[in-house]
Structures are given as C-alpha cells and as structure tokens.
Amino acid sequence: LCRLVSGCGAWRPVCARPVPIIVGRGMSSHKGGGSRPIPTLTAHTAKLAEGVLKGDRTSLSRSITLVESSRRDHQHDAGALISHVMNNVKHKYLESHVSSPEQSSNTPTTPTTPPSSYKHRHTLNNPTGSFRIGISGPPGAGKSTFIESLGCYLTENGKHRVAVLAVDPSSLRTGGSIMGDKTRMTELTRSPYSYVRPSATRGTLGGITRTTSDAIILCEGAGYDVIIVETVGVGQSEVSVEDMVDMLVLVVPPAGGDELQGIKKGIVELADMIVVNKADGPLLPVAKLAMTEYKSALKLLHPKTSCWEPTVVTCSALTHHGVQQVWSEFVRYKDAMELSGEMGTRRGSQRDQWMWRILQEEVVARMLAHKGVLAALPGAQSRVHEGVLSPGAAADMLLDVYMTGGINNE
C-alpha cells in the first residue's frame, strides 16, 4: 500500500459548502478548469437519501443494507449516498448556525442545562450535535440489557432519539451470523424514538463491521442524536470501535475486577468509563468491590486526554438502578470533551483513519481481482507452501505484478 500511494502527493482538505442532490453519474467540470469526480446519485439512491434526511426508518434500513453490500456497483452508490447525507447535514448547519466567520469556530458554548440532559452543541465537525457511544465488554456482562435500559431511559417521553448498531460475530466456517442482539432489546425496539440495527462482522476484526462508521452517519442524518455501537465483545483486542465513537464504555460483570485485569493493555486502557453491571441482589457487595479494584487499577494507567479522568460506576440494568447516574457521567464527559474542543478534533482524526483502512482493504480487493495477480497467485502460494519462497518475497512479487500490469487492469 505504501508503494502504491507514495507518489500521490499531499492531501488537501475541501471546504464545506452546500452540495445539492444530483441524479446521474460521471465527471463534472468546475470553475478554474479541469474536472473532478462529484458524488452523484441514481434515482433510487436519491429517493433513499431524501427518506433518510426526513427520518424515515425504512429508507434508513435500506440505505444501511446498501452500504453493507459487497457488490462494486452498490459500493459506488453507497459512497455517493453517504457523501450527500454528510453534505446536506453540514449545509443545514451552515445555514442555521454560521452567519459570520467569528461564529464558525468549533468552540462550543458553556452548557447551561442540568446533568440529566445535554444541550445539542452543533459544530462544523459535529453538525448534528450527536453523541456517539461505544459499548464493549466480555460475553455475559449484560451489554444488550444495559443498552436497552439506557435506551428506554433516554427515549422516555421523546427526550432523545436513540439508534443502536449491534454487531454480532460471524461464523468462521459458514460466514453466517445469528444477530440475536435485537431480540434481547424488545422493549427498546417498540419505542418510536429508537432504531435498532443488528449487523454481522463478516470477518472484520476489532469488534465492529467495516461499514459501521457509514451507518453512524446515516443514523445521524435521520435525526438520531444518541448513537450506541455495541461490539461483539470477545476480549481485550476489540478496540477498533474507539476509532468511530466519542466515548468508549467498558461494561464488565462483578467479580472480574482484580487489579491485574485493569493493568492489561487493551480495551481497559482505552476505556473512558467502566460500568460494573449486575450490581443487584447478592452480587451488590461483589460489584462494589470490583468498582474499588478497577478504580485502583486505573490509577496506574495514563489518561488519554487531559480533560477527562476515566471513571468507574456501578448499575443494575435489570432493575434500572444507577442508569440515570451512568447517563449523567456520560453527559459530563461529553461536556468536558466539547468545551476543550477535543471531540471535534477526534472526529476529524477518526475520518482520516477510516479512509486509510478502507483504502488498504480496497487495494487488496483490487489486487485479488487483477488478471495478472490471479495468474501468478497459484504458483506463488505453492512455492510458499513448500518453503521455497518466503511469504514476504511472494508478496513483493505479486505486488510487482499488480503495479506493472497497471492499477486499472482488473
């Protein structure tokens, strides 16, 4: 990948400006000469974009399905759809919030609302004023129950609109997935102010899917102000979700909080907050002990940011005890990150990181579809299998075949 992109030159940011929905395909000229690709929509995807921006659930579901498709034509349409949703949301922000250069700063205003709720502070990097929360933890910690309890609290009386993107693991043998998280959120799914969407990892590592970040953008475009991403939660390495959310929350069960667990590098180190769930009945004393031990362990770790110290709280998702306190801590974190300006900076960095990740995947996909690589691949694999050729040398050989044959030769 480094060899392929080393000669591409520096990236130049494009200023946000109104971009209308354009139906059609191809290249469009612009003032100053030359041409550049402008994301365009087919009649079908234009209708989807219109429905998403109006908050239509059916259009949102169909749009996420399009984004998750692996077909090349669907990926092209999905990219155009995402770009138009982003630009239309940003256009609305510029029209309603920016009337002079002094008002276009990403510095939010001082919050005046009580900690039980939060003010929608819109910035250029967060034009919808949304709050993205990543939920991870080991199996059996009660993540789905916790999300449903929190979601029901937030959607009560229409206080917030909550979208839940639940990621389930895919089978390594068959590629299938049960996607049963939605069945454990029956009460939340009945709320008119919520949207629950299960997705399969389809082999993507890190606890999330390749298209989760795009699904977040679509949900925000549909008017959901709290986006919750639940990872597959299989261990310490499920940290990719941190690259697409504002806050990473680790949900753990009682009796799992020995100090050595907190010292381990991984998701505990990256967590902005630890929630000890199932703090009820006979497990309440154990949960309090676990909270104390996690607090002690966090003192040994360096905070990710100077404006926030990771906290540990207990709650019972089953009885809903402590859920309001947890949300108050979430709001306190959001206020601190917005007032420092770090939330907007983080979102910009996250978009850069996902661009490079998708670029790497796309380069590999195009290599595997290249005629020259397909012809040379069996011989290279055979020599590597026999120990005649090292894996590194074989990779270099296949990359040379791809680059010599031309990038567009597929």
Distance between the termini: 17 Å
**How much is the radius of gyration in Å?**
23 Å
Pattern of helices and strands = HEEHHHEHEHEHEEHHEHEHHHH
Largest sheet: 7 strands, parallel
| Form type | globular
Q: With helices defined by DSSP (H or I, 4 residues minimum), what is the helix count?
A: 14
Helicity range: 40-55%
How does the helix and strand content classify structurally?
Answer: alpha/beta
Query: How are strands sequenced across the largest beta sheet?
Result: 5-4-6-3-7-8-9
Percent of residues in beta strands: 5-15%
Number of strands: 9
Mean pLDDT: 78
- Low-pLDDT sequence parts: 1-20, 25-35, 99-116, 170-174, 203-208, 406-410
Essential attributes:
410 residues, alpha/beta, 7-stranded parallel beta sheet, 14 helices, 11% strand, globular, disordered C terminus
Question: How would you explain this protein's 3D organization?
Answer:
- The protein has about 400 residues and is of the alpha/beta class.
- It is built from 14 helices and 9 strands.
- The protein has helices at about 1-5, 45-55, 55-70, 70-95, 145-155, 185-190, 210-220, 260-265, 265-270, 285-300, 325-340, 340-370, 370-385, 390-405; strands at about 25-30, 35, 130-135, 160-170, 195-200, 225-230, 245-250, 275, 310-315.
- Helix 2 (about 45-55) crosses helix 4 (about 70-95) and helix 13 (about 370-385) runs antiparallel to helix 14.
Q: What's the short version?
A:
44% of the residues lie in helices and 11% in strands. It has 410 residues and is of the alpha/beta class. α3 packs antiparallel against α7 and α13 runs antiparallel to α14.
